[in-house]
Each structure stands twice: as structure tokens, then as C-alpha cells.
Amino acid sequence: MASSNPPRGDRVPKDLKGLLRFCAEATKNEDHTTESTFKRMPEEKRKWLDEFLNEMTVNPVERMKACLFTIVEGVDLDKKIAAFDELHDWCEYIDFAIDFHRIGGFCVLQYLLHQDEPVMRWKGLELIAALVQNNPYCQKVVLEEPNLFKEILLILDTDSDATVRTKALLATSCLTRDFPEAQKIFVDSDGFSIILRAMQSNVEKLKVKAAFMLSSFVTDKPEYKNILCDMGMIDQLIGHLGEEHSSFHEHLLSAILTIVQDFPRGIKEFRRPELDMEQILLQKQKDLAGKEESMEELHYAKELLKLIQENQSENQDVAR
């Protein structure tokens, strides 16, 4: 039977390497009834284990600095992308994202957005999204970088690469979430028109994410519903329902419902007879019935139809 006594003080492992070594030695004599199979580790396997253990005790700040150096000074695009990926993983953690700012990492963000290779631009935008997501400290710092947010909005609106525009939308969404100061800059920069133009693109992913952001934004800040009515957003969203059916329609109906719900002006706009929404929604119900993958879209259609039918009931009551 193996001894139950604790290890002597001079043998207590000081780190993970020492712990593994101690475990290997301790189990050597665990069973005296059989011949021990313990033997010296082959050099190649030992080298691999040492490298693995070193990676487990890595210094995040030093790794972020190394990644930045590779991204800015490197010439091999594949190595730059690998550095981006590692940096992104670190910066998803709030504390490491703050460390990234403290080591001067934010000074390279605008540099990344002006790179010729689209992958460098969208990786930079993806990094910004990771930095600011649910991170008030980094949200504030991004706004302190001169014109950085407006540069992101410009890229979202005008970049020639679909992935770059989609990542710019992601960065915008993460930056404005639960952050009134960024929301105001977005609105003052005609951000809703930029979102509308994104929904008018031929990139399905961008259209879906733009509609989703619109719904989220208005849910968080219903006071902006008047601005959306002023710019004819409800008419524009309804117009897209005439396009060939896709997953975009679910998010269109969600956005319309979010705008008009509990908002008398929006309901009045939505119920205008010339929009023919009752027939559109009745046809939606017919087309989507029994389709499990369309349950959310069907739900939104039913909720919107209720708003129209409630209006009809109210008019009939007044007539009586």
C-alpha cells in the first residue's frame, strides 16, 4: 500500500512541472506486487511536454505585445492572421482587454482599418468588437481615439468588401450596446441611414445583422422611434418584405414589431391602408404554417396582425 504520509517539505512541488515530476515518482512504488513500468521519458516526448507546460504558464501581456509586433512589423500574412487570432482570444477577457489598452495597443487600431488587405481590415474590426464588448472601460477609450468610431461607421457604409462591412457592423453593435454616449454619436452621425443602406445591400449576412441591430437598439432606446418614423423606416422595412423570402424576413418583422409596439405613432404608420399589411401578414401566416424552422417569423407575423385587427375592432366600436 502506498504511504499516506504527506510529502516532506523539501519535496513539495513548487510549480506544475514539479507536480508532474512528483506524481510520476510517487506512483513508481505504488504497487509492490507488480514490477514497476516507470522508465525515463524519451527525449522527444520530454521536449514536447516542456513546451506544453511553458505555454500553460505564458504571460498574457507579453504575448499580446508579441502579437502586436507581428501584426505591425511582420511580412507574412498567415503569421499576421495567426497573431490576430491569438490577440482576439486574449482580448475577449475584460481584464486583458484593459491591459491591451495600457500597453498602448489602441494606437494601432486606426492603422489596421486603413490596410490594403481586406482581411487586415476585418480582423482589426473584429478585434475592436472583442475589446469593447461588455467592457465599459474600453468602450469609453475607443470614443477617446480621434474619429475612430466615425471611421468604423464610414467603413460600414462604404467599404467594398462584404466581410469588412459585416465586421464593422459587429464593432458598431458592440460599441453602442448599453453605452449612451456611443449611441448618441451613432444617431448624430445618421447611423440609422447607414443601417438602412446595409439592409439594402445584396449581402444576406449583413442585412440580417443590420436588422437585428436595429431591433436591439430600439429595444434599448425606444425614444429613438420618432426619428425612425421621421425617416420613413417603417415603409422601408415593409418594402423589403416584397423580396424573395429568406431568413432576412424574420428579422424584418422583428424590427417592425419592435418599432411599432407600444408606440401610437408607429402603429398609425403601420396601419396605413396603402401598405396593405393585413394581406401581407395573412399570406405570411399561410406560407409559414407548419414550418418548424419559421416559428419565430410566424410569431412576429401573428403579433403584427393583432395590431391591425385591434384597430379594426376599435373602428367598429366607434361606428356603433
UniProtKB/TrEMBL annotation:
Coiled coil: none annotated. Keywords: Repeat. One of its GO terms (molecular function) is adenyl-nucleotide exchange factor activity. It comes from Potamilus streckersoni. This is Nucleotide exchange factor Fes1 domain-containing protein. Residues 16-97 form the Nucleotide exchange factor Fes1 domain. GO terms for cellular component: endoplasmic reticulum. It comes from the Eukaryota. InterPro entries: ARM-like, ARM-type_fold, Hsp70_NEF-Inhibitors, Nucleotide_exch_fac_Fes1.
